[in-house]
Amino acid sequence: MTGYLLKNCAAVIADDGPGPVVHRHVDLLTEGPAITAIGPNLVSQNLPSGTTVQDASGWFVYPGLVNTHHHFFQCFVRNRADLDWTKLSVIEWLDRIYPIFSRLTEDCFYHASVTAMAELIKHGCTTAFDHQYNFPRHAGRRLIDRQFEAADLFGMRFHAGRGGNSLPKSEGSTIPDEMLETTDEFISDCARLIDIYHDAAPFSMRQVVVSPCQPVNSYRETFVESVALARDRGVFLHTHVGEGESEVMRARHGLRTVDYLEDMGFAGPDTFYAHCWELTHDELKTMAASGTGVSHCPEPVYLVGAEVTDLPAMAAFGLRVGLGCDGAASNDNSNLMHCLHSAYMLQCLAASTRQHPVPPPVDFLRYGTTGGASLLGRKDIGRLAPGMAADLFAIDTRRLDYVGTRHDPLSLIPRVGIGATTDMTMINGRIVWQKGEFIGLDEAKLFADAEASFASVAPVVEL
């Protein structure tokens, strides 16, 4: 069995359970998919056959980041002046962007996933959850299958959120009819994907999450049936909550979104919501009591958030919190490492308006690692310790960028921010990215194929 010895790491951010701690000048040993030892001078021991020794001098080694909310397919609408939020109303923006989404083909969904996963891996993400809710009728039913294919290409740990929308525009939805499904179609495909791909074993590389897009764009029965399927199959639940729709839900159903979902059982330790920036303290306490988690997406706050999400209150009430990039419609990159920095800085900006103190920088590292693992129900990822998955990334800090910062590896990413790609990313014991290259892949060809797919369906409109 193959493995790696990372020799003489400048720092390893290890965690045996209580929380991350810094081990200085130690080695880290992997065998197969797992970490087997962290300690000084492991190179002097009898190493397992097939172990590759790699000099890690100057490296800070971190647990792989866990992305808990994204929309990969939106990578085809990044950095477009004709879709600029600052020049359009929300309704005008939706009217422009959904026709583009509805034209995407099966190949587009594949290449968009390749694009997003590549950027995630380059910036230290080793496990990705994607909320794929766009199913144009002409694109067929194999869109999630193609996402698993993209994950296999890179060797990425992938949790597929099978989303969907069932409420027509004529009844208050914002979704074009060509992107709608019936509840039966949605549930049937969720069940198919669970049967084919879901693996609950330790070190699983493939899992499925039942993820109706958002309550405001689906019938109640879609959510009721989602709960029934997920609980029957032992998989997790996810949806969008608290991003401006709560009063719309109250007008329709007499309940704001959190109470609406709690009422039907779409809540609990097997459930996590995305965003939640508009929720009241009472609603956050309700979620904490049920064990429901939050995927906080900080970067969309810059573009579309009406307010900075109250993470200090979430921390004070004991909510489980992870981090997500969100899709390119509200965040033009797939850099989860940058989200750690954005999340911390935004909370500092809003500190004077908060009832509770801003969590320390190290907590934002936790949100991106153990917090994300908790949202996805994973006990085998998110921290570096013997027996845990060998999911990690390394930053060579022997650069001018890091002068004066190396005394505190725990705060480095949230407080200082990292502008460059990692020097190495390892997933499940396999190095997938090192020295600016994807191991065994031709990035130039992947780029050309993705660009061609993009150009075929989403030409830029000149202003």
UniProtKB/TrEMBL annotation:
Domain Amidohydrolase-related: 60-432
InterPro entries in the record: Amidohydro-rel, Metal-dep_hydrolase_composite, Metal_Hydrolase, MTA/SAH_deaminase
Keyword Hydrolase assigned: yes
Record GO terms (molecular function): hydroxydechloroatrazine ethylaminohydrolase activity
Pfam families: Amidohydro_1
EC number of the protein: 3.5.4.43
Keyword Transmembrane helix among UniProt keywords: no
Keywords: Hydrolase
Family: Belongs to the metallo-dependent hydrolases superfamily. ATZ/TRZ family.
Name of the protein in its database record: Hydroxyatrazine ethylaminohydrolase
Record lineage: Bacteria, Pseudomonadati, Pseudomonadota, Alphaproteobacteria, Hyphomicrobiales
